Amino acid sequence: MTNIMLEVKNLKKIYDELGPSPKIALDDLSFEIKNNEFVCIMGPSGSGKTTLVNILSTIDKATSGIVNISGASIVGMSGAAKAKFRKKKLGFIFQNYNLLYSLTIRENILFPLIINSIGEKEWQENLEQVTQILGIKDILDKHVYECSGGQQQRAAIARALISKPEIIIADEPTGNLDSNNSRELMELFSKINHDSQTTIIMVTHDAFVASYSTKMLYMKDGKIDKILNRHDLTRDEYFNEIVKVNAILSNN
C-alpha cells in the first residue's frame, strides 16, 4: 500500500484562459505529500496558495494536470462525486471559524454528521473522542456567542475532525488569534497529527506557526520555489530555517 496521501503532477490553473489577458495562477506544479505529514504552504500574496488549496479542496477546477488524493483522481470528477468525496475524505478549518451562531457548540460540531445521515451511536462516539482531545466538553451546550475566540477555534477544529477525515485543510487558522492561542492551537494540531494519524495541509504567513509543521512548501509566481523538511531539527532550528528561506526567496 502506497504511503502517498496527495500526488500533484504538472498542475496548471489559468484564469480567463481564452480572454485577452489570461492569468497563470499555478504553473506546472508537481509535489507529493505522504500519509501523516503536517505540511504548511507559505509564499507572498498572489503566489497561488489560495488557488492551490481551493483545487485540493475540490471547490475549484484545475486547467490541466493530475491531483490524486488518497488514491482517487479529483480532476474530472463530477460535482456530485466531488461533494461526496469532500464529505468523506476532507476536513476544513477556516480563519473565521464559519460556525453557525444560531446553534450550540455541540450542534455545530455535529452538523457534518447530521447532514450526512450518520447514526446516533457513531456520532456520539466521535463526539466523545474529539471533545476529549480538544478539551471542550464543558462548552458543548453553550452558543457560539458565549464562547471566546480560542474556544470557537477549538469547536471549528472539532467540527473538522468529527467525520474522521484523512486530510485536514486549514487556511490561515491562527489569523484571528493572539500569540498564546496561536501556540495552543499549533500544539493541538501537532497532537492531532501525531495521535490521529491525520494529514494536515495548512496555509500560513507566520513562520512561528509554520515551525510546527514537518514540511514547508514555499510558493512564488504559481510554482513551488522551495521545499523544506524538518527531519531531525528542533522546532527552534526549523523556525530559523523557515525565516531564512522566507527572507531569501521573498527578496529574489
TrEMBL record:
The lineage of its organism: Bacteria, Bacillati, Bacillota, Erysipelotrichia, Erysipelotrichales. InterPro entries: AAA+_ATPase, ABC_transporter-like_ATP-bd, ABC_transporter-like_CS, MacB-like_ATP-bd, P-loop_NTPase. It comes from the Bacteria. It comes from Thomasclavelia ramosa. SMART domains: AAA. Pfam families: ABC_tran. GO terms for molecular function: ATP binding; ATP hydrolysis activity; transmembrane transporter activity. This is ABC transporter ATP-binding protein YxdL. Transmembrane segments: none annotated. Residues 6-246 form the ABC transporter domain. The keyword Nucleotide-binding applies. Belongs to the ABC transporter superfamily. Keywords: ATP-binding, Nucleotide-binding, Transport. SUPFAM superfamilies: P-loop containing nucleoside triphosphate hydrolases. PROSITE patterns: ABC_TRANSPORTER_1 (PS00211), ABC_TRANSPORTER_2 (PS50893). GO terms for cellular component: membrane protein complex.
